Amino acid sequence: MTRTTERPAASPAARRAPAWAAALAGVLAGAVGLAVAELVAAVIAPGASTVFAGGAAVIDAAPRWLKDFAVEWFGTADKAVLLGTMGVVLAVGAAAAGLLELRRPPWGAVLIGAVGIVGAVTAVLRPDATALWAVPSLVGIGAAVLVLRLATQRLAPAWSSGGAAEPARRSDAAGVPDRGADGAGAMDRRGFLVVAGAAAGTTVLALVGARLLSAGATAVKAARETLRLPVPRTPAPSVPAGADLRIAGLTPYVTPAADFYRIDTALRVPQIDPAHWSLEVHGLVDEPFTLSWDELLALPMQEHHVTLACVSNEVGGDLIGNALWLGYPIGALLERAKPRAGADMVLSRSHDGFTAGTPLEVLRDPARTSLLAIGMNGEPLPVAHGFPARLVVPGLYGYVSATKWVTSLTVTTFAADQGYWTPRGWSARGPVKVQSRIDVPRGSASAGSVTVAGVAWAQHTGIGKVEVRADSGPWVQAELADTVGPDTWRQWRASLPLARGEHTLEVRATDANGQVQTEAEAPVAPDGATGWHRISVSVS
Ligand SMILES: Nc1nc2c(c(=O)[nH]1)N[C@H]1C(S)=C(S)[C@@H](COP(=O)(O)O)O[C@H]1N2
Ligand SMILES: [Mo]
């Protein structure tokens, strides 16, 4: 047996990596970088894609004559030509980076990093961008440089830069052939092919993933933007001027959609094209039916202000908001399906599987405007708030009523079915509890007559009275702002004489039926927090 564990000495031909291999390493590194950036962008913000933002910036920056030329020569294919041109330029640059990295490391990596940073800055400078938009390009740089270095190290192991100990460690760990006596290693063909293959595979997977994740989002965004909401048959009464006390720091009466709290179990917001949306109404009913988007839009719509609250809202918390909803009464949909005797619950289900169990009598109550809503504050529902359709029920916490991205209503019983949160330790029924919150002052105030203000709510019953007190002194009745009705919160304000020093302020509300908000503290689970909101204020 003459075999040894020694590798045969590298032939001179094997020592020099061909230029095409280095160029290929560069192109693959660039491809991985862009594809990974695309994938990250698809998850955090489709517009933040290095290619998309870069292309948009090129279009914005292109001189008039170039634009005219492009449109004249390429017509509606101008975007494709732009992307193709960008692709060629980037590929040539990436090939150059590969050659550079082989001959003059780390300058190839530096070139790729520089292009990536230009991409990141370009993305952040887009009109609708946030700082987050830099992330796809930065992650892309990381992926590209990793591939570039792994690949070129296999083309010229001896050249691989880094700490003195690093190449040796790599030899052990990654099977890179040992360096020859002259310090030049043989090209590791197999290793290079493995890296190249992995890079190509990663590129394809990342691009497919990005497409799956963002194609829907782009289409849905476009569908939402082009949607024209129907004019309500029953418009909401206009908000009285006195509903907003206009005190600095006091929560506005109507919450802008952008500031509205968001709670859901969706890791990624469901993207539903209204054209493919429908609502199935079935279960214990005589006449089940399916409502299409066009059928829904043709129904007479109502507008109604409702304050939505989360059962997880702590005393003094901000998981609550008030909006103008546009929709069709859920009760009317249920009547059409003709619920059978014995049914007492409607299990609403969302596109992503969330469910809520709502008492049937609440939804059928003609005196309560429960809506299958498509509009919020005059706009189509924001995607994160349930586009294209959600439920809004006055007087119940969101977890038992306010299903977003709703796709079915099943008439059933509390005995037979339960909503998503019920087996997870939350009550099957979730009527909103009377609560109040101090918004002003925040932390400090100046001595004298101090304005104390906030909001109070007892949806569907209404607020009858709000009282505040300082340092457990006598209760002072607050002035109540106007409201459109009992289904929303109400602002309130009072003036308390406060001397210099630390003070404790407390608030308690009484609902329109005379029920006083309890001082007894209860945690949010299983059916909503109780207790008085109490704040400290230092008066100087
Ligand atoms: N599909 C779906 N709908 C949902 C939820 C959810 O997790 N998934 N959470 C509910 C809860 S707990 C609340 S408080 C409200 C919050 O609605 P918002 O995010 O529009 O404020 O949505 C409800 N609807
Ligand atoms: Mo909630």
From TrEMBL:
Domain Oxidoreductase molybdopterin-binding: 267-421
Transmembrane segments: 20-45, 80-100, 107-125, 131-151, 192-213
Highest rank taxon of the organism: Bacteria
Xref: InterPro entries: Ig_E-set, OxRdtase_Mopterin-bd_dom, OxRdtase_Mopterin-bd_sf
Pfam families attached to this UniProt entry: Oxidored_molyb
Keyword Transmembrane on entry: yes
Segments for region (Disordered): 161-180
Assigned keywords, A-Z: Membrane, Transmembrane, Transmembrane helix
Presence of the UniProt keyword Electron transport in the record: no
PANTHER family given in the database record: SULFITE OXIDASE, MITOCHONDRIAL, SULFITE REDUCTASE
Name used for this protein in its record: Oxidoreductase
Species this chain originates from: Tsukamurella pseudospumae
Lineage: Bacteria, Bacillati, Actinomycetota, Actinomycetes, Mycobacteriales
